[in-house]
Specification:
Number of strands: 10
CATH class of the largest domain: Mainly Beta
CATH architecture of the largest domain: Sandwich
Largest sheet: 10 strands, mixed
Radius of gyration: 25 Å
Low-confidence stretches: 1-48
Structural class: alpha+beta
Shape: globular
Number of helices: 2
Strand content: 35-45%
Mean pLDDT: 79
CATH topology of the largest domain: Immunoglobulin-like
Helix content: 10-25%
Order of helices and strands: HHEEEEEEEEEE
Number of domains: 2
CATH superfamily of the largest domain: PCu(A)C copper chaperone
């Protein structure tokens, strides 16, 4: 049934329910009628939103005024795909998403505008792949430091995250 017909159907059902209510019908009958009237409308509801969890957000040490890097895993616990569109952090004058690729034995890095996060899946930002470039660091990032960032998704979701600066070439050990 087209959406306009669903609305007309619901309006008609609501009018019938109001007349039943005016006649003093029992609440159980009213509740059953409301459920029947709204049934077609709920079938048209948007699917559940993506639920993004940020795992292992980490960075490497870097000196103020230079560029830093951020890595993480975006796990989508929802049934709907989403897209990371923007990353912001007060520790950099500008933040960009990049993808690293190798072609003909030459590694290159390219700015990207979006990073898809599949429904029920993961997108990894790690060495040799997607990563967050922190351009023009406003402060030095030392091992053990943490800094905030905000991730903005196509769905409208915004996720706050704290990156931990690692002493090594991988994420710091998880805290118990």
């Amino acid at each position: 049934m087209p959406p306009a017909r669903h609305v007309a159907h619901a309006q008609g059902a609501l009018a019938a329910l109001l007349s039943v209510l005016a006649a003093g019908t029992q609440p159980l009958v009213l509740a059953a009628g409301l459920a029947a009237a709204t049934g077609p409308l709920t079938a048209q509801a948007a699917p559940a939103a993506a639920r993004i969890e940020v795992l292992q957000p980490w960075s490497r040490p870097a000196v103020a005024g230079t560029n830093g890097i951020g890595y993480m895993v975006l796990a989508n616990r929802g049934a709907v795909a989403d897209v990371l569109e923007k990353v912001e952090s007060p520790v950099a004058t500008r933040v960009e998403m990049h993808a690293t690729s190798v072609s003909g034995g030459v590694m290159s890095m390219k700015k990207i505008d979006k990073a898809p996060v599949p429904a029920g899946g993961q997108t990894t930002f790690g060495p040799g792949g997607y990563h967050v470039m922190l351009i023009g660091l406003t402060r030095t990032l030392k091992a053990g430091d943490e800094f905030p960032a905000t991730l903005s998704f196509a769905s409208g979701a915004q996720v706050s995250v704290r990156f931990v600066v690692s002493a090594g070439m991988g994420p710091p050990p998880a805290h118990p």
